[in-house]
Amino acid sequence: MAFVGGIKDRPITLERMSGYSAAMTSQSLVPRAFHGRPSRAFGRDIALHLATVHRDIEAAVCFSDLVALGMLSGFAEAGIRAGRDFRIVGFDDIEESSIAFPRLSSVRCDSALFGRNAAEAMLAWITEGKRPPDKRRYDVELIARQSSLWPDNDGKQSDKSAPAAF
């Protein structure tokens, strides 16, 4: 399994990659990362690269849904069935994740809660001098869809939610 996308050594990339790295290390596996722009074009290019050079990699956790959607396109182009031959999970759970084919599994975060808490913290800092903490973590949720969990023989797949800690 690889981590795909995100600019190397940027704080947001390191944060999103931290759960992946911890899981790999806990299983005595070496983390493998393919860093780059968080775009569909990068995802497509990496999928084509993995399809030809790294056939031993069977799954990817992506920096963003854009990267993951690009990977779906690249694997389709290479004749590799996402969700069956290669498992993919994105991050952000953008609307297109639920309508792409195969539907993209994604990590969902509560952006509204994040924004509200950030605004409240900034207002408290400005008006009351209360400095917010340097870091604050929020729960995320894995929305499992076809790209990581292909449907049974009847072809029906409902979204499955599972709490996750990243």
Automatic annotation (TrEMBL):
Keywords: DNA-binding, Repressor, Transcription, Transcription regulation. The keyword Iron-sulfur does not apply. SUPFAM superfamilies: Periplasmic binding protein-like I. Residues 2-148 form the Transcriptional regulator LacI/GalR-like sensor domain. Pfam families: Peripla_BP_3. PANTHER family: HTH-TYPE TRANSCRIPTIONAL REPRESSOR PURR-RELATED (PTHR30146:SF148), LACI-RELATED TRANSCRIPTIONAL REPRESSOR (PTHR30146). This is Substrate-binding domain-containing protein. It comes from Roseibium salinum.
